[in-house]
Amino acid sequence: MRRLSSFFARHPRGRLAALLAAPVGWLVAVYLGSLVLLLLAAFWETEPFTNDVVRDWNLDNFRQILEQDVYRAVALRTIAMAGLVTLADAVLAFPIAYYMARVARPRTREILVVAVLMPLWASYLVKAFAWNAMLGEDGFIGWFLEPFGLGPPGDRVGLWLTFTYFWLPFMILPVYAGLERIPASLLEASGDLGARSLRTFWKVTLPLAFPAVVAGSIFTFSLTLGDFILPTLIAKEQFIGTVIYSDRSANLPVAAAFAMVPIIVMTVYLVVARRLGAFRAL
Amino acid sequence: MSKKKWLGLVVYAVIALFAATSCGGDDESSGTTTGAAASTAIPGLGATLNEIKQKARSEGMVNLVIWAGYADKSWAKTFTQQTGCKVVTKDGASSDDMVDLMGTGAYDGVSASGDATLRLIARGDVAPVNYDLTPNYANVFEGLKNKSYNTVDGVGYGVPHGRGPNLLVFRKDKLPAGTDSWAPVWDGSQAGKLSIYDNPIYIADAAVYLKATKPDLGIENPYALDQEQFDAAVDLLKKQRPQIAKYWDGTTYATQVTTFKSGETTVGTTWPYQTNLMAAEKPPLPVSSLKPKEGTTGWSDTWMIAKNAKHPNCMYLWLDYIISPQANAKVAEYFGEAPSNSKACDVTKDKNHCTTYHATDESWWKDVYYWDTPTADCGDDRGEACKTYEDWKAAWTEIKG
């Protein structure tokens, strides 16, 4: 034991390596390793009868994804959904975060933070089934809209509402943190220079908080892009997640090839987000 | 160490990992044997029934992939009491899902339908059964033994569980009395109200309907479809697609009960299991279910044992237990299917169960097409002209849009 500790005392690099071995090992071997293996399957094919994956290198799966219209339609539908959910969350989250960061007193702020986090304590599936019931034929939302001559929302709107609800806390928290970080002196300076509050908001607060909104959008966008449970429960149209889910057992290589789509989309998204300074706002 | 070196290490680690796992995979596949050469031996399995019973005590559990409802507490508990093996289950969503789950090697056995059994055998995931160790097999209906879906080259894999039809289910208050046809599911009369099974194998249901309504297509076997027949079926399904309110499968079957309750769906395809659940609602749902005049798809299931089962002794005891008259009767009544053990008919709670579910009435099953895996070989003089299951899967993704 003593020898070990004296070894680490003499070798700071060894200390670092021992400390990081477990987390790095986990990340590389278990996380990245399995991901790489899965993606390699995209270049393989299945034996038509047994459904077994055959390690026969080819690009047929990618060809299928590019040539069959349905995959393009599903990808575009999912990206559009992710975009709309992100937009709705940003619009909803900003006033809440603003109130929390700049208006509410410390005590109210604490209560609000807890309130925002509260939905995350409940089980994902419980919330999903609750929304499924609310959006259904004789559900709450249909009942609420009936006096206005509207029926229950269709699949797409229903799914959009549900996603927006699910990921809202992931938008509120970064925006709240971003708004809180803006020094009050900047706002005062803006006022001293003659800007009214609305102008200060447009010219100072919003630009400074924007990276935080982009940071939050990374969560809302990527979570929508990858989810397969809500689309299965609420919509009957296919989304990227549901296609991968059903192809996973039926045709793993095609599922793996299709899984490249969200990876590419997210890579592009992250590069743009980084340009916009979102990583510093996290 | 510099950043570049670290990165290099990471890359090497990933490559090494890949190499290690892919080698392991190769070993596995080269070690598999199929067909008649396969032996019933499983590492750790007792040689006699007594030895198996003893060894099972120390195994203490059995891990099963099942169709929902096949291992309910009401008979699994008795099994645990008798053998000391706890029953752990995982519902399969579809046959594809079950084949996939068995491929993981984590399960001891599976209740496989006819579109999964041969795939499991060909993959080498399951072992033949030594029927000397499953005494209840002797009382299984002869009509279910030595079938193409459970026997290869004279070697039997698994024990027959029972069989049942996929039924037409409809709300009695929304559809005309005397409905006895699949037509409402296909003709648009209940647009927006359909509840449909979500799996490529459902293409066969379209083929069954076309077989009856478009005799020109010459469909004989709904699982052996040539290009023209296949196109017609896919076409029909694409027309049906916008009329569907909800899909269901082996893991989401309970939502079907909910949608029929709320009226969100009024007609569709179902398993007898859900119709039992609907009848058990308070008050019972106003639904009717039947085998339509066009015939239907169905299943004949087989309990199979994994070649590398971790609890082979418990699994053997389960194979024998689940086809024992008492357990077989319970599962048949619970799920709503025809039992496989001829003695089960004497111990069902409902004395008419076997008559109601046509356990011995072979003529009733003539137009029930058991799930089967589509292959290029049509099995008739058309030769290799048929669409493979791979084509079915691709078409299904396209149908769902």
How would you describe what is shown here?
The complex is a heterodimer of chains A (282) and B (401). Chain A has 282 residues and is mostly helical. Chain A has 2 domains: 2-43; 64-281, MetI-like fold, CATH 1.10.3720.10. Helices cover 80% and strands 1% of the residues of chain A. In chain A, helix 12 runs antiparallel to helix 13 (252-275). The radius of gyration of chain A is 24 Å and the shape is globular. The model of chain A has no long low-confidence stretch (mean pLDDT 90). Chain B folds into 2 domains: 40-164 and 300-370, Periplasmic binding protein-like II (D-Maltodextrin-Binding Protein, domain 2, 3-Layer(aba) Sandwich), CATH 3.40.190; 165-298 and 372-400, Periplasmic binding protein-like II (D-Maltodextrin-Binding Protein, domain 2, 3-Layer(aba) Sandwich), CATH 3.40.190. In chain B, helix 4 (95-103) runs parallel beside helix 5 (114-123). In chain B, the strands form 3 sheets. In chain B, strands 1, 2, 3, 4, 7, 13, 14 and 15 form an 8-stranded mixed β-sheet that branches. In chain B, strands 10-9-11-8-12 form a 5-stranded mixed β-sheet, covered by helices on one side. Chain B has helices at residues 3-31, 49-59, 73-83, 95-103, 114-123, 183-186, 203-213, 227-240, 253-262, 272-280, 312-322, 325-335, 353-356, 389-400; strands spanning 61-66, 86-91, 109-112, 126-127, 151-152, 155-156, 159-165, 167-171, 194-197, 244-248, 267-270, 287-290, 296-306, 338-339, 368-370. Classes of the chains: A mainly alpha (282), B alpha/beta (401). The A-B interface holds A 13, 28-29, 32-33, 36-37, 40, 46, 48-52, 55, 64, 68-71, 73-74, 136-138, 232-233, 236-238, 243, 246-251 and B 1, 10, 13-14, 17-18, 21-22, 25, 93-94, 96-97, 99-100, 103, 118-119, 122-123, 198, 200, 244-247, 252, 255, 259, 262-264, 373, 375-376, 388-390, 393-394, 396-398, 400-401.
